[in-house]
Amino acid sequence: QVQVVESGGGLVQAGESLRLSCTTSGLPFDDYAMGWFRQTPGKGREGVSCIDWRGVGSYYADSMKGRLTISRNNAKNTLYLQIYSLKPEDTARYYCAARWQHCSREGTDFDYWGQGTQVTVSS
Questions:
Q1: How does pLDDT run across 3-45, given as a tens digit for each residue?
Q2: Bridge partners of 10?
Q3: 5, 114 Cβ separation under 8 angstroms
Q4: Residue 14 half-sphere exposure toward CB, CA atoms < 13 A
Q5: How far is Cα 119 from Cα 109, in angstroms, rounded to an integer?
Q6: What are the backbone angles phi and psi of residue 110, rounded to the nearest 5°?
Q7: Nearby residues of 89 by Cβ (< 8 Å), 6 or more positions away
Q8: Has residue 57 got a pLDDT over 80?
Q9: CA-wise closest residue to 53 among 104, 14, 91
Q10: Quick check: helix, strand or coil at residue 108?
Q11: Neighbouring residues of 82: CB distance < 8 A, sequence distance ≥ 6
């Protein structure tokens, strides 16, 4: 059984940084592309970032470009997302997802999802 578990969210002030983590089990982590998505009530899901199975190809959302670093540690089956200079508009639930090898900006292309971790940014 595949499990995807996010952690690292919380309440922070604008301008601060956070590192989100995502740990998987039950799948060959180093064969999967890993992505981060976010969603707020009343808004659609937005692709935030993704890193492919080799750890080479990646993308960042235009709305957050320059404030993100995505990375993975295959030995620990863990994905990370470092977010810098957080803004109130970054408040959302952040989800981790997995798909075979290559990144996609479409959430429907991902096979496995976690329950999400809430990030709340106060002004």
A1: 999 999 999 999 999 999 999 999 999 999 999 999 998 888 9
A2: 119
A3: yes
A4: 5
A5: 24
A6: -95, 145
A7: 121
A8: no
A9: 104
A10: helix
A11: 17, 18, 19, 20, 68, 69, 70, 71
Spatial separation of the C-alpha atoms in residues 2 and 15, rounded to whole Å: 35
Tell which residue, 113, 116, 104, 111, has the closest CA to residue 40. 116
Instruction: Look up residue 72 and give its two tokens.
Output: 């993975």
| Cα–Cα distance, 55 to 32 (Å, whole number) | 10
CB 9 within 8 A of CB 117: yes
For residues 37 and 107, the answer to whether their CB atoms sit within 8 Å is yes
